[in-house]
Amino acid sequence: MVKPINIVCLLSAGLLGMLGFTDHIGLSDSGPTPVHSPAEELGTFRLEPGLSIQLVAAEPLVQDPVVMTFDADGRLWVVEMRGYMRTIDGDGEKEPIGRVSVLEDTNADGRMDASTIYLDSLVMPRALALVPGGALVAENEKLWLTRDVNGDLKADTKTLVDAAYAGSALPEHAGNGLWRGIDNWYYNAKSRFRYRQMGTNWQRDSTELRGQWGISHDDQGRLYYNYNWSQLHADLVPPNYLSRNKNHAPTTGIDHGLTIDRRVYPIRSTPAVNRGYIPGTLDKEARLLEFTAACSPLVYRGKTLPAPYMGNVFVCEPSGNLIKRNVVGEQGVLLNAHDPHPGTEFLASTDERFRPVNLATGPDGALYVADMYKGIVQHKAYMTPYLREQTLARHLDAPINRGRIWRIVPTSWKPTKPANLSVASSAQLAGYLSHADGWYRDMAQRLLVERNDHRVVPTLLNLIHTGNNQLGRFHALWTLEGMGALQSAYLLPLVSDHNALVSSTAIRLLEPFAANNAQVRSSLAILLLKNWAKSTDKQVMQMALSAQALDQPAAQQLLANIVTKYGNMPLMRDAVLSSLGNMECAFLQRLWVLPAWKTGDASKQIFLEMLTTALIRKHDRAELTALLALLDVDKKAVGWQHKAVLTALSVQGKSANQMPVKLSAAPALLFRSYVNAAEAAAIGTLFDWPGHAGQTSIAQKKNPLTGDEQKLFAAGRQHYLTTCAGCHGTDGAGLNRFAPPLAGSDWVTGDEKRLALIVLHGIEGPISVAGKRYDAPNILPVMPAHSTMDDATITAILMYIRNEWGNDAGPIGKRTVGMTRVTSQGRVMPWKAAELIKYAVEANANTTSEK
User: What is the pTM of this model?
Assistant: First the structure.
């Protein structure tokens, strides 16, 4: 995976091709490829009808651009990574030759004609954010605060903010982004850090790990990012909510894959991808089949492009010389995306040095493209012999220090002079919070927060309570938050607001007030309990997330209502559990006696099992003793609740994740007839009592798992419940009209690579399991691909299903899923059973011949 700069996260791509051919040329030329001037490159583009692409800047004005952003007066700031891969061996990477430049259009003709070097002598600069009086700049793996003291657009001071910003010396594994979120925090890709200015200091906070290169947000503030192999992911909930409960590991909500579509459609041959020699990477015309370097997803929030483009997400693919367009849709609290024109990309080029690595929206509403214009995009750490040979043969190692910035606009578009927001009054900036273009709303919010001019507070409150623009009201709330000017009295009336976004935001912003004031907690609880049943899914989601701020009785009542009604939604289950930190036992006991929970269903079983798992992880002796007592009943009284909790205890026992809890005597539960020997042995590992040592009581299996593998097994159960149980059942027995059983299935216990192929790409048509043929309508016609899940998650699921329900296949190799993903690159259709059977036969034959 190569995301050096923002560039290719090519794990399987580096890229090559040939040049100067028409849309249908697919020949693979081994000779040198020509270098194009900006004017010549302009002729190589194919863009969606009705739009045009214009040159904004080119070398020598800009070189190796990897990140760009506009300031409040319409000037374009560009990070230039001039030290990246200057030779095939990456010589001189640590030389201080990178820089940050400020480009200006001084005559308003739409072309940048002046450049000021804001900061130079930088080592591999990779991120930029404009702040009062200067900029945050990430370079040499560190984060710096730079200041322009005299206003000449040149940095005068450079102060270290975070020596560990990047987290890795390898470009494709280093933090980047510095994207200002709607909540006034700066977020990053490939990083667990976020930053915020607090007075004169910069605060670093931990957050969820996101993406690889590039990050942006939509109109509702949801963060979007991606990975070289999976083009579009997003957060479905605000940051840092689902990770609050240390006893629960969420499996949804963060890092949600919007589409399993990995296909790309270059208009030139691309044989010089890093793994172009692997069958399935390229088609018969040597064109890349799927993403290998997806990066820099940008949500377009402007009005300059035609209406159908509003809210679309554009994704760069520098290894394929193209940019993909995704149309995003909403289904309740979920997001999905699709390619509106399969077979044709939004923008593609026949110039193999066209390397789109970063996107931005300007104050003019245009879509800007940073084109590194470089032959080598694969970092030296991942340069394969194949790619090296291709690169040298085609002279792609030269020239260096080129670069272009392009602008995409409607064909009839004319450039206009941008407003100088830096000199706008606070009242004028408040008006921009309701602007049609997201760029103006974001910039106005940022400037107002930075000015902290409290004279504008009445204007903002008037907008919030009487304004007709819902996005303006939304931004005004976060502006007040950033200024520290919020009061609970402003927010409580908005809990019942007609607009779901405003209402949800008010609930979220009330949390710190509720945490510190009993009256606010009481008022908020009354409102939430009154409104939850008539609220939208999004509002209920925020209520579940914010319930932690309430007193326990009210919180549990609200959460019980929510999980009873919405428990079939995995994301809602995770949201409820995230608010139950240290309340798991009390909440389980509440659900146990509720009339609605006397009758079980699959979703209730899953939630109760997940709740029990959190209780076990809490590791409280008194609560676990109470749990054992709750289960210790006469066999006739055993119901679905008991079985769900016993399953959780058994699974966690098999993983032996914690030191055993000391008991004064053996639990009577373990000797009940409804607890089988395997369950009793597994549960016994969780406890010590006189004459018994936990973690040694479970019987030795044929294929035992190590300690780390047992932990992966337990994690796999949680992912299985979220992802797979809806079709295969919580017990792996399969569900009629959905899916065949996994228990006793050779498809599960057999070849692990074959199983990984099924999960990665899906399978369709009839299939035989344990001698029985399954086909539609008795099962669904297709099991979908799960390629948006990362390797670790898939590995955990496979570890679990191969070693549960009597399956005893043993551990799965740590690299199996990752290598299978790489070697099956280009597979975009579900497998058929016959294909996989043939694969297994051929794989075994190859293995035998190699011995």
Answer: 0.94
